[in-house]
Specification:
The complex is a heterodimer of chains A (68) and B (285). With 68 residues, chain A is mostly helical. Chain A has one domain. In chain A, 82% of the residues lie in helices and 0% in strands. In chain A, helix 1 packs antiparallel against helix 2. Chain B has 285 residues and is an alpha+beta fold. Helix content of chain B is 57%, strand content 13%. Chain B has a four-stranded antiparallel β-sheet with strand order 2-1-3-4. Chain B is flat. Classes of the chains: A mainly alpha (68), B alpha+beta (285). Chains A and B meet through helix 1 and helix 2 of A and helix 11 and helix 12 of B. Chain A: This is DUF1657 domain-containing protein. Chain A: InterPro entries: DUF1657. Chain B: Its main location: membrane. Chain B: Pfam families: DUF1657, DUF421.
């Protein structure tokens, strides 16, 4: 497995975390927990952005692994 | 009118009357019967019983008696609500038996308690050593309340964890196979969400005897058919696991890459993720 696909897998994992946090933020009735989940969700968005940036760099360097 | 018909009519009327009276007396009477209320209850029952059977007693006389017997406690409890002094007189005060870890023998004597009876009461509260008790008081209703010494008190979550998030009461959203809309709305969830959750578990609403939602929106169900195994909610544990995996991924990538800039980015994200896990851990446990 190339680094490119590994990073993409990690991105998928991050997206899953993001979605779960969002769901928990919406379904929690405890306000404190709601806020914590929401803040965490926003932070994961930054991580996702960083990973996406890295993936586009990798694809530019090794165009043969583009796509997926 | 035949006698049996009169007895029947009387009994039914008295039953309805007694039902209204017990509603009037309220819930408090049930849980915390003082000796006085106990006697009043027995007397009312006795009067009602003889009234329904004994045709010599005229209804008006019986009803007057019942009304007096049942209204008296109501009046007393209304006055008690207003005046603390009256309350102390009627309901009695609590007596301190152990203070600062020392037994107050005079108070024991005053309440006619022997040392054996005190020990028995303590044992009922799972206390076998008097030395473990900091404070004990005999309540007005005869119960012994105990405050253990600090080092003998049971361990609570707040003792070992500096911060524990609040947990709200769970809501019962399905009962006897029917969706309860009001608790569902209290949990700020919809029927659609519930259906989706049940579909994920692979059960139909009709087969659910009881379902509850906790304050994190996790659904737990009990089915009519006890042979079917329903998975316990794992969303929170899975989230924690995948967050740990993400952190490990970032660390791995930072070791693998030769690009200095990317290395720094990965290390930073790994640190962020670690902080995030630390912050969310109390909610996900």
């Amino acid at each position: 497995m190339t680094i490119g696909s590994q990073v993409k897998q990690s991105l998928a994992n991050m997206k899953a975390i993001h979605a779960t946090l969002q769901e928990l933020a919406l379904t929690s009735t405890n306000e404190e927990a709601q806020r914590a989940f929401h803040e965490a969700m926003l932070q994961t968005e930054q991580m996702i952005a960083a990973l996406k940036g890295r993936i586009s760099t990798l694809e530019r360097e090794e165009p043969q692994y583009k796509g997926m | 009118m035949p006698a049996w018909l009169e007895v029947a009519i009387r009994s039914i009327c008295i039953l309805i009357g007694l039902f209204i009276i017990t509603k009037l007396l309220g819930k408090k009477q049930l849980s915390k019967l003082s000796f006085f209320e106990y006697i009043v209850g027995i007397t009312i029952g006795d009067i009602a019983g003889s009234m329904s059977m004994d045709l010599d007693i005229r209804l008006t006389e019986g009803i007057t008696s019942i009304l007096i017997w049942s209204l008296f406690p109501v009046v007393i409890s209304t006055i008690s609500l207003r005046s603390k002094k009256f309350r102390d007189f009627v309901e009695g005060n609590s007596t301190v038996f152990i203070k600062n870890g020392k037994i107050l023998e005079d108070n024991l004597k005053k309440e006619k308690y022997t040392a054996d009876e005190l020990l028995e009461q303590l044992r009922k509260k799972d206390v076998f050593r008097v030395a473990d008790v900091e404070f004990a008081t005999l309540e007005a209703n005869g119960d012994l309340s105990i405050l253990l010494k600090r080092d003998k008190q049971p361990l609570t979550l707040g003792d070992i964890k500096p911060y524990v998030p609040e947990e709200k009461e769970p809501q019962t959203v399905i009962m006897d196979g029917k969706i309860l809309d009001e608790p569902l709305a209290t949990a700020r969830l919809s029927r659609g969400w519930l259906k989706q959750q049940l579909d994920q578990m692979g059960v139909a609403v009709e087969n659910v005897f009881l379902a509850q939602v906790d304050s994190y929106g996790q659904l737990t169900v009990d089915l009519y058919d006890d042979r079917i195994q329903v998975p316990a909610p794992q969303q929170k544990q899975l989230l924690l696991a995948s967050m740990k995996k993400a952190e490990a991924d970032f660390e791995l990538f930072s070791l693998q890459t030769n690009d200095a800039e990317a290395k720094q980015m990965y290390e930073q994200q790994a640190k962020h993720m670690q902080q995030l896990i630390q912050k969310l851990r109390p909610f996900l446990m």
